[in-house]
Specification:
The complex is a heterotrimer of chains A (293), B (295) and C (282). Chain A is mainly α and 293 residues long. Chain A has a single domain, classed as MetI-like (MetI-like fold, Orthogonal Bundle), CATH 1.10.3720.10. Helices cover 76% and strands 2% of the residues of chain A. Chain A is built from eleven helices and three strands. Chain A has a two-stranded antiparallel sheet with strand order 1-2. Chain A is globular. Chain A starts with a helix and ends with a helix. Chain B is mostly helical. Chain B has two domains: 37 residues; 229 residues, MetI-like fold. Helix content of chain B is 74%, strand content 1%. In chain B, strands 1-2 form a two-stranded antiparallel sheet. In chain B, helix 4 crosses helix 7 and helix 7 packs across helix 9. The longest helix of chain B has 32 residues. The termini of chain B are far apart. Chain C contains ten helices and eleven strands. The chains are: A mainly alpha (293), B mainly alpha (295), C alpha/beta (282). Chains in contact: A-B, A-C, B-C. At the B-C interface, strand 1 of B face helix 3 and strand 7 of C.
Chain lengths: 293, 295, 282
């Protein structure tokens, strides 16, 4: 009797486990399905719109026809601008945090600062960009203001990734170099940084992907509804892919008629951003496999 | 001596750069206040936050952001209701149950989900989910709380999942081994040992996920419907704070009360997310101490 | 790494001091989304005819355009309302002299889902609906369905015109769904049998049903004669009498070719468009 009881109890325990595993698998499945669902939907609606002309011509006929070339170029400029702000600042900050700083109050403050900066909502970055770069520094709504805003937006991403990359360089590398009488700075520049470079690169690429897809920060700092020609200086407004999608989908004159353009633009943006992310993921996994230490 | 001197310069230079993030954070606060404070000469802080009418362009204008705050809280709450179970369970699956290859794929999928631009999710919610919701449930509008919450949940899942996964991964192997040795099933080990041990990390994940959802702009701008009223059902439209800022800032005359009111809304939003982040920071520091060291 | 730092600082310095020289010769147009299709169609034609000219166009809203005109960050401010007295005062205080040019006439049309039985609403009924006092279609002769009020964002010129001509400054119900453009309203109403919205005549298409107001159908004729109660002029504002490239562009908008484009976009061309004269501020 007792044995029977115990047997059924054990059965019950494993039954619970099966149910639980089922739920857990289901949740993973839902997430996968959500991503794949969204991507396939966008792909099948978007790829018909995409042609060579779509990618290389500016919009025409009140943005109901033509292409999205100025938006692609604008997004490229903004992202390049953003990463050239965030990369030097981020890497140097990370070097300081990992190589130089001792644990203490200052480092704690910096770390909280970085964490909080990472948590600031993107629309607040937009407000800040508007208040500081556009109005206070008088950059106007421009590539410059947009790039700087996006740059500080992705700064925490770059710092985080660079820190992780620097930390994963074995301590023995540094010790060996220092033991040979090499100065700390030279050790960092010649030994640590080169070893950490792929990791830093991965993080920066992820940051680029983030910057390319953001809309709210550039709404008031850089993005134009329509410019027929390409920007000539960093003080020009530009079209940008994410803002172009928003405009076509909500503020356009002919929302239904431009659906295929919208899907096309969404597909280009998703392709661009996820392509960038995928590159980063691939670099990282190949790096993990190759790691010599 | 010169070498030593150079080292010191480099060190201090780098310290300055590292301090840049804190500086930016300070600048953000300064400029939000600079542009937002003037509104409080027209209206008290209490009336601004708890006022129930948002009519910034009328004469006389009314700047009560309570409906916007409620809008933000409601969509965040429902987003978490969806995102927390999915995020945490998927983290458990990835770190404890999934076989190696699936694990890597799933991690990549979650990373890609995190990379999906918010405007794309907003577009998806607007063009596909909204008409579907409206027809299926015969609603007055498909741009409503439930739609916005689902889209926000998709944005918050990667945050919750990846941080929870780190927390679960950090649970010492000895804990699990001890549990198995006592004859516990895998399920019992997960529920009674791993999750409690990783709880502060999971809490961090949930809070950061909430912070992500409450600050997200494009999704709520495009999908929440934009009605600045306190909702009465989950099928009502709302106008969360970020949506209000993004929709109106372009049109608010520079230097007007409306302009300052939007910056003041930004202050509220900033401090709400800052609070979330500081709480998360507190939890994650607590969670660092959980390890074999504490045994 | 030092090299990067130096380069970065160098670039930053260049940027800081290069500000003044960077604004090239070009026309910037900003403002009302109602005027946007007119501006866009005419500027595309204009740029085709004058390839050297660079015109950049943004929407935003009438207030935004006038704000930009006052800030001197735009050359032409599109507006669907007349400039306000306080805006004129602010402009004058900053040395800007806004000059009015009427470029087209617009009627604002209430629209519903094509299946809605309601055909006509009085100004008063519209006002009650938008204030949230009438909440069911059966109260105005329709089916027993809740009314979903769709409105433009409160800072748009169309909204202001609507608030003035229909609501007489009463407040729109906070339950109203705010849409960012007339196109978005068409889109929302065409998919929603509960909805009512309002748009410029230029946006009326087959996917929605335009209502008559006080029994009068909105059309070019009734809008010009102002017989249709919700009609208004559309403006382009400039700082001082337009000159140079700006003058040429505005002249083109007012020319028969330009007004033809206005009509093509669904607006009402100016009745006196033949003489292509500018209309000064009244």
């Amino acid at each position: 009797m007792k044995v029977e009881n115990q047997k059924s109890y054990i059965k019950w325990r494993y039954f619970k486990q099966t149910i639980f595993f089922g739920v857990v698998r289901l949740s993973a499945l839902i997430i996968t399905a959500a991503l794949i669902g969204i991507l396939t939907y966008i792909f099948f609606h978007g790829f018909r719109a995409i042609s060579w002309d779509f990618l290389t011509l500016p919009p025409t006929d009140s943005m109901t026809a033509g292409g999205i070339m100025p938006a692609i170029v604008g997004t490229l400029y903004l992202t390049i601008g953003a990463i050239s702000v965030a990369l030097p600042l981020g890497v140097v900050s990370a070097i300081y945090l990992t190589e130089y700083a001792k644990q203490g109050r200052w480092i704690r403050i910096i770390r909280i600062g970085v964490n909080c900066l990472a948590g600031v909502p993107s629309v607040v970055f937009g407000l800040f960009g508007l208040g500081f770069f556009v109005v206070f520094l008088k950059f106007g709504s421009s590539i410059l203001a947009g790039s700087l805003t996006l740059g500080i937006l992705i700064l925490p991403t770059v710092i985080g990734a660079s820190e992780e990359a620097l930390k994963s360089v074995p301590q023995t590398f540094r010790e060996a170099s220092l033991a040979l009488g090499v100065s700390k700075w030279s050790t960092i520049a010649r030994i640590v940084l080169p070893s950490a470079l792929p990791g830093i690169l991965t993080g920066s690429i992820l940051g680029v992907g983030r910057a390319a897809g953001e809309t709210a920060p550039i709404m008031f700092t850089a993005a134009a509804f329509f410019t027929a020609s390409l920007p000539k200086s960093i003080f020009d407004e530009v079209m940008a892919l994410p803002y172009h999608i928003y405009v076509l989908a909500t503020a356009g004159t002919h929302i239904e008629q431009t659906r295929s353009l919208q899907y096309g633009t969404v597909l280009v943006l998703v392709g661009l951003v996820l392509g960038i992310d995928l590159i980063a993921i691939l670099i990282r996994s190949s790096m993990r496999r190759k790691k010599r230490w | 001596m010169t070498r030593h001197f150079r080292e010191i310069i480099i060190r201090n230079l780098f310290a300055c750069f590292a301090f840049f993030s804190v500086l930016i954070l300070g600048l953000i606060v300064i400029f939000l206040f600079r542009e937002g404070m003037p509104i409080f000469q027209q209206i008290s802080v209490f009336k601004f936050i708890f006022g129930s009418a948002w009519y910034p362009t009328y004469d006389p204008p009314e700047y009560g952001i309570w409906p916007l705050i409620v809008g933000s809280l409601v969509v965040t709450f429902f987003a978490c209701l969806i995102a927390v179970p999915l995020g945490v369970l998927s983290a458990i699956y990835i770190s404890e149950i999934a076989p190696g290859a699936i694990k890597e794929y799933l991690k990549s999928i979650i990373e890609l989900l995190a990379g999906l631009p918010s405007v794309v999710l907003g577009f998806f919610g607007m063009v596909i989910v909204a008409p579907w919701l409206q027809e299926t449930f015969d609603l007055p509008t498909g741009l409503n709380i439930i739609n916005a919450s689902v889209m926000l949940a998709i944005m918050a899942i990667p945050t919750i999942s990846s941080i929870s996964e780190d927390a679960i991964y950090a649970v010492p192997r000895e804990f699990k081994e001890a549990s198995y040795a006592l004859g516990a099933t895998k399920y019992e080990t997960i529920i009674k040992v791993i999750i409690p041990a990783a709880l502060s990390g999971i809490s961090t994940a949930v809070i950061l996920g909430m912070a992500r959802a409450i600050g997200e702009t494009m999704v709520v701008l495009m999908v929440a419907g934009g009605a600045a009223a306190i909702p009465q059902s989950i099928f009502d439209s709302v106008r969360p704070m970020p949506a209000s800022i993004a929709a109106e800032m372009g049109e608010a005359p520079f230097g007007s009360g409306h302009y300052h009111a939007l910056f003041a809304t930004g202050i509220v939003l900033f401090f709400v997310t800052l609070a979330f982040n500081l709480i998360a920071d507190y939890f994650s520091n607590k969670f660092k101490e959980v390890g074999s060291g504490t045994l | 790494m030092n090299k990067y730092v130096k380069q970065f600082m160098l670039i930053a310095l260049c940027l800081l001091f290069g500000t003044g020289a960077a604004f090239a010769e070009k026309i910037v147009i900003k403002g009302s989304t109602t005027v946007l299709p007119i501006a866009q169609a005419t500027l595309e034609a204009y740029m085709k005819a004058n390839p050297g000219v660079n015109i950049s166009l943004s929407g935003g809203g009438s207030g935004d355009g006038i704000k930009a005109l006052i800030d001197k960050s735009t050359d032409i401010a599109n507006s669907s309302r007349e400039i306000k007295a306080n805006e004129v005062a602010l402009a004058k205080s900053k040395g800007v002299n806004p000059v009015t040019t009427v470029v087209a006439i617009d009627g604002i049309v209430p629209i519903v889902h094509p299946n809605n039985k309601v055909k006509n609403l009085s100004i008063d009924q519209l006002s009650q609906i938008y204030q949230g006092k009438i909440t069911n279609w059966k109260e105005v002769g329709g089916d027993d369905l809740q009314i979903v009020v769709v409105s433009r964002d409160s800072s748009s010129g169309t909204f202001e015109a609507w608030a003035e001509m229909v609501l007489n400054k009463a407040k729109v119900t906070p339950r109203a769904q705010m849409q960012a453009s007339s196109g978005a309203i068409v889109q929302a109403v065409s998919k929603n049998k509960y909805a009512i919205g309002y748009i410029g005549l230029g946006y009326v298409n087959k996917s929605i049903k335009a209502l008559t107001v006080n029994g009068i159908q909105a059309s070019a004729k009734t809008a010009i004669s102002k017989e249709y109660p919700i009609a208004r002029n559309l403006y382009m504002y400039t700082n001082g009498q337009p000159a140079g490239e700006v003058a040429k562009f505005i002249k083109f908008v007012l020319s028969p070719a330009g007004q033809k484009l206005v009509a093509k976009e669904g607006f009402v061309p100016l009745p006196m468009a033949k003489e292509t004269s500018k209309k000064g501020k009244k």
